[in-house]
Amino acid sequence: MTDDLPPHPALLPAGFTDLLPPDAEAEARLTETLTASFGAHGYQRVKPPLVEFETTLLAGSGAAVAEQTFRLMDPESQRMMGVRADTTPQIARIATTRLAAAARPLRLAYAGQCLLVRGSQLAPERQVAQAGIELIGPDVPEADAEIIVTAAAALAATGIGEVSVDLTMPPLIPALLGDTSAHAALVRALDRKDAAEIAAHGGALAPTLLALLEAAGTAETAIGRLAAIDLPAPVRALADRLSATVAAIRALMPALRLTIDPVEFRGYRYHTGVALTIFAPGRQAEFGRGGRYLCDNGESATGITLYPDTILAVAPRPALRPRLFLPAGTPAEAGARARAEGFATIRGLAAAADDADEARRLSCSHLWRDGRAVPLEG
Amino acid sequence: MTDDLPPHPALLPAGFTDLLPPDAEAEARLTETLTASFGAHGYQRVKPPLVEFETTLLAGSGAAVAEQTFRLMDPESQRMMGVRADTTPQIARIATTRLAAAARPLRLAYAGQCLLVRGSQLAPERQVAQAGIELIGPDVPEADAEIIVTAAAALAATGIGEVSVDLTMPPLIPALLGDTSAHAALVRALDRKDAAEIAAHGGALAPTLLALLEAAGTAETAIGRLAAIDLPAPVRALADRLSATVAAIRALMPALRLTIDPVEFRGYRYHTGVALTIFAPGRQAEFGRGGRYLCDNGESATGITLYPDTILAVAPRPALRPRLFLPAGTPAEAGARARAEGFATIRGLAAAADDADEARRLSCSHLWRDGRAVPLEG
């Protein structure tokens, strides 16, 4: 609908929007496509509530979004509840409580809305749709690879031709540095990928850190460089796990655009293994992110959250039903037939002076005339 | 999944639940079916936010759900926001602001979650899904009829064979009594359909009220009785509008089970014309309700909200993809082919001692063996 008025600036709180036709339909269809693809890959849907007790919602990995969680007083229990700001902790809770006895690996999927207390300058939205998958159970490279190719397949199902996946290993730098809080200047330098500052603050670790910085880029090149760096055993194990994950991805999806950044770790607050971000080609949009984490009970899991709102801006729009005007008095059977043929039928509520004019006024492309759908010119 | 543990009683606040497999999938598919049917009938989807400023959320017809609305303080604007307890007022807001210039009649659809502050004994849920349609514009019987047959068609699309629609005219009794608050005992008697008490408290209106009480039942019978009652002109106009709506429904859907209750009015707090409830046959479940109301700017509209959670309990379950186990190392192309054939593929992450046992352990009905999907016995 192109004839809408500009919104009154104070109509909705900042970061909340009305999706209008045809955007709301496109977003719903996109989410249906993503979840149907997850289902075809064996991920079974669950639907946690929008609201939980604070104590369960913010447990484990949920603590990372505590500041972004709206709180509500529950008049029934007199306890504090939170509105989810992220779905992954809820799925982890379901996996380790209601579905504790379900066979592992346990593959779950979800789609729904989240609320955030504050938007940022780059991402002002405070209601964010999420559609995702979680693979609960074995901590193996094949599991990390599976969620990545499943997410890439879901994006391909929406008509997005190509995506780029950036792999990181968030525990690697902390494993090398020990207590990262004792190295504030160095962490800042790593975060900015500032080689001069890393050299200045890296001390004895500077050569290793600079080599790791160099080992970022296209997966196969980066993995070769990573293999050549001399690393302490626990750090080497993490680097090898990253390489094994690349190999497992390649076995399933050889052509996926894959980069590695072993130095990146600050954006992945609760990740305990391989983490990732999925970008549009050229990185102009972030389609999703995820990685390995521990459930509240210590069980390992990995998952990816896709952002339908972001994907919607890039994905091809779904074909909508052409709109067919049925003049008042058109038999009900004609409408049923036209809908079965793929039209959206718009019924006249009263006789119109000119049916074709009325059809155009109602944004119809077709008019029911003489027992059939006739395309309207102009 | 039948092997889930019983939920810990205090895990979630009362009235909030986790939907597990396969229920969550069934609910999502059901909602997709409803909204696809709305779309085929020309209702275009909109998606208002979960949260709005209290001032807009509770304006107009939204005032009816003020007590059931959770409030949140917005840290950005320092104003109070509410989480929607009903979607209709939001659609009316969109229609009269963002879409004020869109052609009338304006047909809009929606689907989403609502939160309620308190559950009742009969309906303990505090998160309620809604899927509905609103027809904004002409106040004519054909519009009232259209939303009813559109809702009935959407329910039929879910596989529900038959529904029963009960029509009421909430302004009729108030138009007859004048100020209803001056007739508390009589209103209570009408509410209970207690003929003796109506006779006792009805005064000069008692014969008319008892005749209206008698004029409840199957639409055609009731309309005949309603036509024979002597009513003041404004009340007669309302009764005739109810009859005209029945005629308009019959023109579109002759076989719909239709009853009328002209005395019912207390459950329809903001309705200004024909209102309705859609029941499962036998009335064991309420699938939806709706009716005519005024938007905040005085524009007339009518709509119906369906309750997917209630429908889910009655509707036939969708066929799910049969689960096919792909032993570790199965080529990626085989999985893609099996998914295209309608299977949900479950990939082995490591070699299993016995592929068939592993497939059964993961609730698969089929195993990929010798290049094809083989059904598993037992």
TrEMBL record, chains A, B:
Protein function = Required for the first step of histidine biosynthesis. May allow the feedback regulation of ATP phosphoribosyltransferase activity by histidine.
Main localization of the protein described in the UniProt heading: cytoplasm
Q: Where does this protein come from, organism-wise?
A: Acidiphilium multivorum (strain DSM 11245 / JCM 8867 / NBRC 100883 / AIU 301)
Spell out the HAMAP family in the cross-references: HisZ
Q: In which pathway does it act?
A: Amino-acid biosynthesis; L-histidine biosynthesis; L-histidine from 5-phospho-alpha-D-ribose 1-diphosphate: step 1/9
Matches recorded under Pfam families: tRNA-synt_His (PF13393)
Return the similarity comment: Belongs to the class-II aminoacyl-tRNA synthetase family. HisZ subfamily.
Annotated Gene Ontology cellular component terms: cytoplasm
Its localization reads:
Cytoplasm
Q: How does it assemble?
A: Heteromultimer composed of HisG and HisZ subunits.
Q: Which UniProt keywords apply?
A: Amino-acid biosynthesis, Cytoplasm, Glycosyltransferase, Histidine biosynthesis, Transferase
Xref: InterPro entries:
aa-tRNA-synth_II/BPL/LPL (IPR045864), HisRS-like_core (IPR041715), HisRS/HisZ (IPR004516), HisZ (IPR004517)
- List the PANTHER family: HISTIDINE--TRNA LIGASE, MITOCHONDRIAL-RELATED, HISTIDYL-TRNA SYNTHETASE
GO terms classed as biological process = histidyl-tRNA aminoacylation; L-histidine biosynthetic process
The name this protein goes by in its record: ATP phosphoribosyltransferase regulatory subunit
Q: What else is known?
A: This function is generally fulfilled by the C-terminal part of HisG, which is missing in some bacteria such as this one.
Q: Name one GO molecular function term.
A: glycosyltransferase activity
